[in-house]
Design brief:
Shape: globular
CATH architecture of the largest domain: Alpha-Beta Horseshoe
Strand order of the largest sheet: 1-2-3-4-6-8-10-12
CATH class of the largest domain: Alpha Beta
Strand content: 15-25%
Number of helices: 13
Radius of gyration: 30 Å
CATH superfamily of the largest domain: Ribonuclease Inhibitor
Number of strands: 26
Helix content: 25-40%
CATH topology of the largest domain: Leucine-rich repeat, LRR (right-handed beta-alpha superhelix)
Structural class: alpha/beta
Distance between the termini: 37 Å
Length: about 625
């Protein structure tokens, strides 16, 4: 049986790959990209074959995009020319390629300045200009590239200060090594919560060490000494390293009393070492105690604010605690618009003071009086459930940052309730959007749905693979995915989330948490959950995006299968698999792509959790589906 399942899985994968390479539509490159690419070619010294489609050129990657006149055209999304012996300049026309996600030009001989127009590539996620001959200062507007995940400008001749490192909420890798930067490392680097690798070494006059040291570039300064972290070069090592003196070869032999003298000297040395060790150990214990005490006091001052002294702030978007002072008033929410109501409480919308119109969402969670003698058992259980969910929300989303996760901005504790403050998502939840589409009040084309699926997959990948310990959401569904101004998906509501140590494969619970229709079978049957349970829920969501119906829809209740997953499987193996596609999407030319996504959904909802792909592979499969 297991062998047949493996064969079936391999056949599905082969069919997925074969369809993937057969659905690229023959479109033309957008005129503005064609012109900009031609200018870049001349300035970089590239020899592109103009007889072929530019998007088929090595190093140029294009994707299908919707233009202003509601038609489709190819746009350049990646430029990868590593180690091509380029010796020109990077033209300011790079800013015309507004759909760029990656620029990789490392290991060439490019000269002159980095053009300031590069900040117009607002969707840029990877910028690799390492090991070239770029000079001058880095444009100060660099921090407007808030989607950057990878920034490497090491090995150039760049100068000036590092003030361009102001705000990079998604940056994971940063290297400015081996340049001529001066001044101090900006304190703003401490706020880059996603930063995992950074390197400031090789800048002789750079000062200051970021407090949140992680994986830095280091070098071996002495073969006999342990490796140390380098952030700013000091004086020449030969100047600071003590010189070792050696006795001359022809020194006279010691007299007869020398052995006794050497023995006494050795005893004195041993006594000195013991004394030094005891003194050092005592000093270490004392300093450790003092540091621990100070650290606990700092935690009380920072996080203890939620117990009456003010809000606990988790994001730099809120400049000061006074901005949330209106929530500490008795009638703080009286004049605000209520935008939702759920099992945990009410949600309000407000403008953040001093933010130039930035909107925030405030979730109010009522806290019944704990000392009420008449509190019923059911109410008591509800109280504990709400408090556990608040703690889970703060412990997880309060400490993590990713562009596809809804960040917790602040927490305010009051005697009768708790306020959780988030960024406001004006497009509401995915479930709200799907309901609007069903009622004919909004449109959600396939490109938007595919973008949403990619965003959720990227957020899951971060939770399951990049964060330690792993975080299992346990309640992934359209109602818990919010959509920002650009229809980018943000996973929200971490009230049921659990952290799972890397060494564990699963966790056993006493009851099931989640929403019917999205719960993995093994969790429902034997109360064991793992990251593969989230993958199952995501597979159901992929089915929802293509089918256009929620698992609770009456449509599935009237089928033989009485289940979205089982119905989807049966239709996918029938003679007409396109029957599973939302009727509103039929005829748009993307049917084959939607069938591919349904096949990925089938992978994700396998009954055996071991046969389901992990979040990274799901994200890669979705990313490979080109428009």
């Amino acid at each position: 049986m297991a062998k047949n399942n493996t064969i079936h899985k391999n056949l599905l994968l082969l069919s997925f790959l074969s369809l993937l390479f057969s659905i690229h539509a023959k479109l033309t490159l957008h005129p503005s990209d064609t012109k900009a690419l031609s200018t870049l070619q001349n300035n970089l010294g590239l020899n592109l074959d103009t007889t072929n489609h530019l998007c088929n050129t090595e190093g140029v990657f294009c994707e299908r995009r919707l233009t202003n006149n509601e038609s489709y055209a190819l746009r350049v999304t990646k430029l990868v020319f590593k180690s091509k012996k380029l010796s020109g300049t990077l033209s300011p026309t790079i800013g015309k390629l507004t759909e760029l996600k990656e620029i990789s030009l490392s290991h060439n001989k490019l000269v002159d300045q980095i053009p300031s127009s590069i900040v117009d590539c607002r969707k840029l996620e990877i910028l690799n200009l390492a090991n070239n001959l770029f000079s001058g200062e880095v444009p100060s507007e660099f921090s407007s590239l808030i989607r950057l995940r990878f920034l490497d400008i090491s090995g150039n001749k760049l100068s000036g200060n590092l003030n361009f490192l102001r705000y990079f909420p998604n940056l994971e890798t940063l290297s400015v090594a081996d340049n001529h930067f001066t001044g101090r490392v900006p304190v703003s680097v401490r706020s880059f919560r996603n930063l995992r690798h950074f390197n400031f070494s090789g800048n002789r006059f750079l000062e200051g060490v970021p407090l949140n040291q992680k994986l830095l570039g280091y070098e071996d300064t002495d073969n006999t000494a342990p490796k140390r972290y380098i952030l700013a070069e000091t004086k020449n090592s030969s100047e600071t390293r003590p010189h070792r003196s050696h006795s001359p070869a022809g020194a006279p032999a010691p007299g007869p009393a020398a052995p006794v003298h050497k023995h006494k000297k050795s005893r004195r040395k041993l006594a000195g070492w013991i004394l030094g060790f005891v003194a050092g150990a005592f000093a270490g214990i004392l300093s450790g105690f003092v540091f621990s005490l100070l650290f606990k006091l700092a935690l009380i001052l920072i996080k203890g604010k939620g117990k009456g002294s003010g809000p606990a702030i988790y994001s730099s978007l809120i400049k000061k605690a006074e901005d949330l002072a209106f929530l500490e008033k008795e009638d703080g929410l009286a004049s605000l618009e209520m935008i939702g109501r759920g099992g945990c409480g009410e949600v309000y919308k407000a403008e953040l003071p001093g933010s130039n119109g930035k909107m925030i969402a405030i979730k109010k969670i009522i806290q019944p009086p704990k000392d009420a003698a008449e509190l019923a058992e059911e109410d008591s259980k509800l109280l504990h459930k709400k408090m556990r969910q608040i703690k889970s929300e703060i412990d997880t989303v309060g400490q993590i940052r990713h562009r596809n996760l809804l960040p917790l901005l602040a927490h305010i504790s009051r005697p009768d309730c708790h306020y959780l403050v988030y960024e406001f998502m004006k497009n509401g939840s995915l479930q709200d959007m799907l309901h609007k589409v069903e009622r004919g009040e909004a449109e959600l084309d396939w490109l938007a749905r595919h973008k949403i699926a990619l965003g959720i997959a990227a957020g899951l990948e971060y939770l399951h693979t990049s964060h330690s310990p792993r975080i299992i959401h346990r309640d992934l569904k359209p109602a818990n995915v919010l959509l920002d101004d650009e229809m980018e998906a943000r996973i929200a509501d971490f009230g049921l989330a659990k952290a799972m140590p890397d060494a564990q494969t699963h966790i056993t619970t006493s009851n099931v948490a989640g929403t019917v229709g999205y719960i993995a079978p093994e969790y429902h049957q034997i109360l064991k959950f793992s990251d593969k349970c989230d993958i199952y829920s995501f597979g159901v969501m992929l089915g929802v995006l293509v089918i256009g119906k929620l698992p609770s829809d009456d449509f599935f209740m009237n089928t033989d299968e009485m289940s979205l997953v089982k119905w989807m499987r049966n239709v996918m193996t029938s003679e007409n698999p396109k029957e599973a596609i939302d009727a509103r999407l039929i005829g748009n030319g993307f049917e084959e792509q939607m069938l591919l996504v349904l096949k990925i959904a089938a992978f994700c909802t396998m009954d055996n959790p071991k046969e389901r792909p992990d979040a990274k592979n799901v994200r890669i499969m979705l990313y490979q589906i080109k428009h």
